[in-house]
Automatic annotation (TrEMBL):
<keyword id="KW-0378">Hydrolase</keyword>
<dbReference type="GO" id="GO:0006508">
    <property type="term" value="P:proteolysis"/>
</dbReference>
<dbReference type="Pfam" id="PF14543">
    <property type="entry name" value="TAXi_N"/>
</dbReference>
<keyword id="KW-0645">Protease</keyword>
<feature type="domain" description="Peptidase A1">
    <location>
        <begin position="45"/>
        <end position="412"/>
    </location>
</feature>
<dbReference type="InterPro" id="IPR033121">
    <property type="entry name" value="PEPTIDASE_A1"/>
</dbReference>
<comment type="similarity">
    <text>Belongs to the peptidase A1 family.</text>
</comment>
<feature type="signal peptide">
    <location>
        <begin position="1"/>
        <end position="23"/>
    </location>
</feature>
<dbReference type="GO" id="GO:0004190">
    <property type="term" value="F:aspartic-type endopeptidase activity"/>
</dbReference>
<dbReference type="Pfam" id="PF14541">
    <property type="entry name" value="TAXi_C"/>
</dbReference>
<protein>
    <submittedName>
        <fullName>Aspartyl protease</fullName>
        <ecNumber>3.4.23.12</ecNumber>
    </submittedName>
</protein>
<keyword id="KW-0732">Signal</keyword>
<dbReference type="InterPro" id="IPR032799">
    <property type="entry name" value="TAXi_C"/>
</dbReference>
<keyword id="KW-0964">Secreted</keyword>
<dbReference type="GO" id="GO:0005576">
    <property type="term" value="C:extracellular region"/>
</dbReference>
<dbReference type="InterPro" id="IPR021109">
    <property type="entry name" value="Peptidase_aspartic_dom_sf"/>
</dbReference>
<dbReference type="InterPro" id="IPR032861">
    <property type="entry name" value="TAXi_N"/>
</dbReference>
Length: 431
């Protein structure tokens, strides 16, 4: 073997062995990445994390307002050599603000150990809560430079709530829990910011099929080389002083916590350029949710929106509404554009005078196998906890960056007008 080929071999093996102390500097990811899919039968957005020893893929439903990672620990499925329950009064219990301390008769096994603290986690899909044993286990995630997949980054002891799936019947097929991104110390952005030293922020780019979720610092780049993180305009994240967590049990300590979900300030709604007269009685604020499939409006707001929209689109034949929508039209009577069906614009004018524009692709929903398209906003009823919940369909093919550290949300508006989509991240690994 020649000298130069030995050098090449050395360099090659150096590249292959991911030594954490290469050149004396540990590898530090600036961002990590998760692929997202949408489950067509439940409309849930799902990601797969890698957890346990040996590492196992675990499908979880994404809840951006969720408190923690809640993973089903039912036997015999949960097997791990690195599972560690959080002992009473340990730093993990303190981080989760859990003051409980209990024994479990059926153990020892994951989710059932003596002298451990537990964490109540809200399953917002079920609108119910569940107690799970607080625990840590090994976790692995791909890093990214924003354009491509990078190395696998490991966290030896990621905190989660180890629950049981008996409440999981509304979760999509194969889903084993909830992946929470809320404003708590136990959500994924906080845990990864602490363990990996990445910025405490995340960005979601959802679509009706494949999407992507970034944690940490941008850029975020989609094929064909479009830096979507440059398209953001920002509005502040507001704190709703009233907790919005489930279940509604006053004695749970979390009910004295301010909202862990992401609220923004909505100043007005415009339809076809005209500002609606909104009854200011709508209270509870405006939040962004990945769990509601469509934007839910309190009745008075819903009525104002549909009235103005119907007026603006009066030339298009109406058809019988298809639940859960109240306004549907003959799809073939609407022109189609790169940004979806050609309909009047729906605009949310937010604090800081940021306008979030919903074009047809986000405001309208095609009904399967029919010539029907409906206005994709839903009447939530007269009495609601939150007047406006911006739901998944309205978020698709928009980049939203939740900068938890700086308390602001960035919006790109529709990427369809930028000749890319949220399905365009290059997930191909380098050879
Ligand atoms: C379209 O079909 C899917 C899968 O059956 C269903 O989940 C979804 O609700 C349907 N959409 C509409 C608007 O009916
Ligand atoms: C848990 O504690 C109970 C008594 O409080 C005891 O009977 C049981 O054996 C303990 N289980 C384990 C696994 O130590
Ligand atoms: C808000 O923005 C709109 C359009 O960009 C502009 O016409 C309007 O004057 C702005 N209003 C304020 C209060 O800055
Ligand atoms: C995607 O990334 C891979 C790995 O870096 C690269 O080889 C490939 O050319 C990229 N695909 C496109 C369409 O740019």
């Amino acid at each position: 073997m020649s000298y130069s080929s030995i050098i090449l071999l050395l360099i090659f093996s150096l590249l292959l062995s991911i030594t954490p102390t290469m050149a004396g500097k540990p590898f530090r990811a600036r961002a990590v990445i998760l692929p997202v899919t949408k489950d067509p039968s439940t409309n849930q957005y799902i990601s797969t994390i890698f957890q346990r020893t040996p590492l196992k893929p675990v499908k979880l439903t994404i809840d951006i307002g969720g408190k923690a990672l809640w993973v089903a620990c039912d036997k015999p499925e949960y097997v791990s050599a690195t599972y560690r329950p959080a002992l009473c009064h340990s730093p993990q219990c303190k981080l989760a603000k859990s003051t409980s301390c209990g024994n479990c008769w059926d153990g020892p096994r994951p989710g059932c150990n003596n002298d451990t603290c537990s964490n109540v986690v809200y399953n917002t899909v079920e609108k119910s809560g569940q107690i799970g044993e607080l625990a840590t286990d090994a976790f692995a995630i791909r890093s990214t430079d924003g354009s491509n997949l990078g190395r696998v980054t490991r966290v030896p002891n990621l905190l989660f709530s180890c629950g049981s799936l008996f409440l999981g019947e509304k979760l999509a097929n194969g889903v084993k829990g909830i992946l929470g991104f809320g404003r708590t110390e136990t959500s994924l952005p906080s845990l990864l910011s602490n363990s990996l030293g990445i910025a405490k922020k995340f960005a979601i780019c959802l679509s009706s099929s494949k999407g992507v979720l970034f944690l940490g610092t941008g850029p975020y780049v989609m094929l064909p080389g479009i830096t979507i993180s440059n398209l953001l305009t920002y509005t502040p994240i507001l704190t709703n002083p009233i907790s919005t967590v489930y279940p509604v049990i006053k004695d749970f300590p979390d009910h004295s916590w301010p909202s862990m979900e992401y609220f923004i300030g909505l100043n007005s709604i415009k339809i076809n350029g005209k500002t609606l007269k909104l009854n200011k009685k709508g209270n509870g604020g405006t939040k962004i949710s990945t769990v509601e499939p469509y934007t839910v409006l309190q009745t008075s707001i819903y009525n104002a929106v549909t009235k103005a929209f119907t007026k603006a689109i009066s030339r298009v034949p109406k058809v019988d509404p298809v639940a859960p929508f109240g306004m549907c039209y003959k799809a073939s009577s609407l022109g189609s554009t790169r940004l979806g069906p050609g309909v009047p614009l729906v605009e949310f004018v937010l604090q800081n005078n940021v306008t979030w524009t919903f074009f047809g692709a986000n405001s309208m929903v095609y009904v399967n196998n029919s010539d029907v398209v409906c206005l994709g906003f839903v009447d939530g009823g007269k009495k609601v906890r939150t007047s406006i919940v911006i739901g998944g369909h309205q978020l698709e093919d928009n980049l939203l960056e939740f900068d938890v550290g700086r308390l602001r949300v960035g919006f790109s508006s529709s990427l369809l007008g930028r000749r890319t989509t949220c399905g365009n991240f290059n997930f191909t690994s380098r050879a």
